[in-house]
Amino acid sequence: MVNLTIDGKKIKVDEGTTILQAAEKNDIKIPSLCFHPLLEPYAACRVCVVEVIKKGESEIVTSCNTKVTEGIEVKTDSERAMKARELNVEMLLAQAPDAEAVQELAKDLGIKETRFEVKDPDEKCILCGLCVRACEEVVGADAISFNERGAERTVSTPFGQESEACIGCTACSFFCPTGAITVEDLLGREVIHDELHLGPSSAVRVPIRQAVPMVPFIDEEACIHFKTGECKLCEQVCEKEAVDHDMEDEEVKVEVGSVVLASGFKPFDAKRIQAYGYGRFNNVITALEFEKLVNASGPTGGKIRLANGKEPESVGIVHCVGSRDENYNEYCSRVCCMYSLKFAHLLNEKTNAQVYDFYIDMRCFGKGYEEFYHRLLEEGTKFIRGRVSEITDVAVTEKEEGKLVIRVEDTLIGAMRRIPVDMVVLSIGLEPGIDQNEIARVFNISCSQDTFFLERHPKLGPVSTFSDGIFLAGACQSPKDIPDTVAQAGAAASEALSLADKGTFELEPVTAEIDKDLCSGCQICVSLCPFTAITYNEEEGISEINDALCKGCGTCVSACPSGASQQRHYRDNQIFAEIEGIFIE
Amino acid sequence: MEKANEKAYRLHLMVCAGTACVSNNSFGIKDALEKEINKQGLEDEVLVVTTGCNGFCERGPLLVVQPGNVFYQQLEEKDIPHLVEEHFLKGRPVKKLMYKPPKEKSPIPILSDINFFKKQVLIALRNRGLIDPEKIDEYIARDGYSALAKALTEMEPKQIINEVKDSGLRGRGGGGFPTGLKWEFVSKSSTNGQERYIVCNGDEGDPGAFMDRSILEADPHAVIEGMIIGAKAIGASKGFVYVRNEYPLAVSRLIKALEQARGYGLLGKDILGSGFDFDIKIVRGAGAFVCGEETALMASIEGRLGEPRPRPPYPAEKGLWDNPTCINNVETWANVPVIINRSADWYSNIGTKTSKGTKVFSLVGKINNTGLVEVPMGITLREIIEDIGGGIPDGKKFKAVQTGGPSGGCIPAKNIDLPIDYESLTEVGSMMGSGGMVVMDEDTCMVDVAKYFISFTQNESCGKCTPCREGTKAMYEILDRITKGEGKEEDIDLLEDLAKSIKDSALCGLGNTAPNPVLTTLKYFKDEYEIHIKEKKCPAHVCRELNTYTIDEKTCLDVGHGCDLCRKNCSANAISGETKTAHQVIQEKCIKCGVCYDVCRFDAVKVK
Questions:
Q1: How far is B477 from chain A (nearest CA, A)?
Q2: pLDDT tens-digit profile of B431-489?
Q3: ipTM of this predicted complex?
Q4: Which of B459, B464, B502, B508 best tests the A interface by mutation, with the highest count of A CBs <10 A?
Q5: DSSP code per residue over B249-296
Q6: What residues of chain B lie within 8 A of the CB of A85, using their CB?
Q7: Cβ contact A149–B462 (<8 Å)
Q8: Is B329 in the same domain as B293?
Q9: What is the CATH number for B154?
Q10: Which of A32, A46, A132 should we substitute to test contact with B (largest number of B Cβ atoms within 10 Å)?
Q11: How do residues A491-543 score in pLDDT, each as one tens digit?
Q12: Do B463 and A127 touch (CB under 8 A)?
């Protein structure tokens, strides 16, 4: 332990503590700009200067990197320290007048304006090097550094070119204390959203906000550590030491009697419809992005904003993006009409924007839905019936300058219309999950033509499949909304339960069996069996059929070259006997 | 051994091949000498040798004839036939090619009688003008590498460190940290199984300073020997010489010297059979002034951006690649072999109580004898300026001397009897620095001088810390407006505040000392600042924007007969008059460029 005094207060701290840390622990505030607890001290801004008196000699030091020593007396606000701090802040104010952090600091120190020459009133960068250090120390990418020297110094990539070393992790922007670094994704869109698929995301997150259990996970694709081997900041800050980057995926075998498949859907990729300009225009966003934007815990705190931060004056909502379209998906995604109406309602409620809703047919099929539609009509939303053909920023009239223009055929008045708006929300449809076919193969079930899972019977068996004990719930079977999903999930669960409750299982009467004496062990049947009911017994050199799995389809019977596989009740000799019987008469 | 050394010659002609003399055609002189010697059939009697910098750069190209120590200066190729015939053939030294001090009538034939050389004590520059720096044998012949042999075979590392400690040698790069103490720290700091490193700081960046360059050019082996001894003392196996790429001659001589030393088994594995391994690598710097700061220099060697980092940890603890590193300046290393050879006692007898030995200064500016001088610590400024430097040219008055480069300060004429050592210079607000010494006469404007040095530090600031990056810029802006007549009353206070704050809060030595030129000129020449601000005048007439040019009509007409030269040269058409009439300056048009003043041959143009 080391004894020292800070501003007259006697303090005892561990050896190796810096003056800044010691002060912080004792609620003594020392301002700083270039210091970040997760990075090595850089001691460049010289704002955290304090006066240290050691053995009668006074010295000005930066508190961020100076370690405490026995018996020192620290003065954080002595005249000498304050003079240096004030002048340094005043000089920074001249260098980066637009940096809010500096403005605030200046205000705290009573500096009204700077006496020094201001070169660029819009400058935000204070050259604190946090970004450079983050890129080096945390990310290990070394993609950015300082250019030039002295007053000409800037932060940039080598030669100001797009850098191959940059992995797009946005750590630089995260550490920047003044907002001098903004991130643009490869298409040049300003990033305002931070959820997966919606631009760069936090690598550590809870899968969804309603997740149970609420345990965050590390997304290896986004995690810097898995890209460069560095970072591990989350490990450093987690007091419970719960983060382990070396943890590996585990395969867990669970023996179950039945399975409910609820593998969900994937949202339609709006970039596929190039005419709608998603990815090209900053203010064309998808329904999911809008949902994020309007969320109170979203990037704007629930405020609906354009990419430039302003509130939109007009918004267009385009239905059936990727649905009911023979170029993409022919089916109706069922949920889009209703969520689009919800968006229109939220826009009416939260903004003064004029909302246009472009639909083909309004499908308000459920309880209270039609009434909601009527409410929207009264709220002043303008509904235009017709498929949007194009979204463009090419203005024809003065009114269209700087706006996005939606071109649409209004089928009710029978004319082409051009409607200028500030923001377009694309109501994207639902598509089958990416690994739908893979799952179907594993569980031995079928997919319908559109690759949603096929139920046993559309009316009589809507939750079961052709494989016993495998049940379906939710959008993996077909697009559906939350109430329908919940209902189907309930049904699937009870089907599964009824099996478990009974405790027994009825076998098919008509199954195949293999004659041990005839089987040559060629294993043709093993590869052919669609229900994986046949296994090869290596000890005896023959194939064997699991009666519980066999559905009696007869594939193996017809394929068996030696005639060893026979269908019970339909053996060759039985059939021949029947044929013979017919001819006798 | 080369053939030349086996033969005995009657005369050795030592032609200076330092950078200044080379640029004054000393190689041409050498060729002409050899040609003429051959013509006269003297090639078996007279040998021409190229040496490192002699120091008296003002008078180049230089030639010293040995034996006899006869000093010839400002030679031209056309002088050579006469010189060879008269002196080398007939034995009659040529007086008109000898050095004649400004105020005296007869020339001084012998080098050691010349005041410039008389008061110098040569330790770091012990071999200057005496050996060919590209020949290791000549260095060895002058006791070279005998100190290394002694250190490797007879001394323990601790003994070497103690010897250097006892000698009182302090860092010659500027800080003046005791060298032996530094070595002790490095040798004691733990390496965690890693290496220790030796670094020679040859990143000499002060304007007008060329001590390190001269030593590397004139005697590279002295530095190499010092480094090997240091390596033995601290237990290093790798060394680096960081030298500016703008010193091509120094680099090429260093490369040659390292090759020769390796060839003689003085570098590499098992040096002199002692079992000690050490080798040196040259790292060329791109010329950033800040890379002379040790932490920035190390960053540069490591291949990173050359910018300083906070100390502690000091390089002795965490240096190159976080390993203990011993960094010393070129001149410091060159002193080491002499200390080992001639003992700490001998060395510590030279100098003052706190500063031992000698210091090399580059004496430049408004002084008669410009050049490189090595003087014992404790010598007074007066001795350097008046005796060695030969006083101020054109009978002007001595005003101030700037020591320590841009980090140093201006010492006014009233302190001319100041004995020079680390402490005395710091006391008057300047510093030893690496040894630049710029002499100024009455025609120098101190505000302009401060502005010059601040503009230098501002351009060379790495830009890492706020006070240095923004503070030097702010000081420059203020000084600039003062010299343009736009200074405000409160500017002096603001300058003082800024200077103090930068001194207090800058990150590295470069920043801490950057305000020194401003602080010292403010301390000693505040009146000049006040005149600039209040009266909008520059007493030395250097700040042209503050000058008023007038033409003395009487002189113009009576003496110059209205020569019209000023009017012809005036780019602003601000002079009226024609040939044979008196001219006038039209003040409204005058852009104060001063061309009329410069071109007038009759002193008719007056400046106020």
A1: 8
A2: 888 888 999 999 999 999 999 999 999 999 999 999 999 999 999 999 999 999 999 99
A3: 0.85
A4: B464
A5: HHHHHHHHHHHHHHHTTSSEEEETTTTEEEEEEEEEE---GGGGSHHH
A6: 505
A7: yes
A8: yes
A9: 3.40.50.11540
A10: A46
A11: 999 999 988 888 777 777 889 999 999 999 999 999 898 888 899 999 999 99
A12: yes
B353 inside domain: no
DSSP assignment, residue A7?
Answer: T
Q: Are residues B434 and B453 in the same domain?
A: no
Residue B381 in any domain: the answer is yes
Same domain, B462 and B517: yes
Q: What is the mean pLDDT of chain B?
A: 90
Contact A151 B463 (CB under 8 A): yes
**Tokens 């929300």 label which residue?**
A425
Q: How many angstroms separate the CA atoms of B62 and B98, rounded?
A: 10
Q: Which two tokens stand for residue B494?
A: 């603001």
Q: How many domains does chain A have?
A: 5
Contacts of B308 in chain A (CB under 8 A): none
Query: Do B175 and B251 belong together in one domain?
Result: yes
3-state secondary structure A319-355: EEECCCCCCCCCCCCCCHHHHHHHHHHHHHHHCCCEE
- Percentage of chain B surpassing pLDDT 70? 99
Q: The domain that contains A84 carries what CATH number?
A: 3.10.20.740
Specify the residue for token string 């237990």: B235
Shortest CA gap A65–chain B (Å): 8
Of A141-145, A189-193, A432-436, B119-123, the least confident? A189-193
> Does residue B525 contact residue B409 with C-beta atoms inside 8 Å?
no
| Minimum-distance CB partner of B504 among A41, A80, A152 | A80
* Closest C-alpha among A191, A331, A189, A317 to residue A265: A331
Sign of CA dihedral A357, A363, A366, A371: positive
Residue B507 — φ and ψ, nearest 5°? -75, -45
Q: Starting at the edge strand that comes first in sequence, how are the strands of the sheet with A2-6 ordered?
A: A9-13, A2-6, A73-75, A49-54, A57-62
* Inter-chain Cβ pairs, chain A and chain B, closer than 8 A: 104
Give the closest-approach CA distance of A149 to chain B in angstroms.
Answer: 5
Structure tokens at A361: 């047919």
Query: Using CB atoms and an 8 Å cut-off, which of residues 101-160 of chain A contact chain B?
Result: 115-117, 126-127, 129, 145-146, 148-153
- Among the three residues B504, B535, B566, which one is the final residue of a domain in this structure? B535
**Minimal CA separation from A167 to chain B, in Å:** 21
Q: Any CB–CB contact under 8 A between A93 and chain B? A: no
Decide if B494 and A115 are in contact by the 8 Å CB cutoff: yes
**Residue B368 CA to chain centroid, in angstroms?**
16
Distance of residue A224 Cα from the nearest chain B Cα, in angstroms: 23
The gap from C-alpha B147 to its chain's centroid, in whole angstroms, comes to: 27
Question: In whole angstroms, how far apart are CA B492 and each of A103, A246, A330, B495, B497?
Answer: 27, 62, 81, 5, 9
Q: Look up the pTM and report it.
A: 0.73
Q: Are residues B516 and B581 in the same domain?
A: no
Q: Which structural domain, as residue segments, surrounds residue A179?
A: 154-243
What's the domain count of chain B?
A: 5
> Which tens digit of pLDDT belongs to each residue from B305-334?
888 998 888 999 999 999 999 999 999 999
Nearest to A44 among B288, B464, B471 (CB): B464
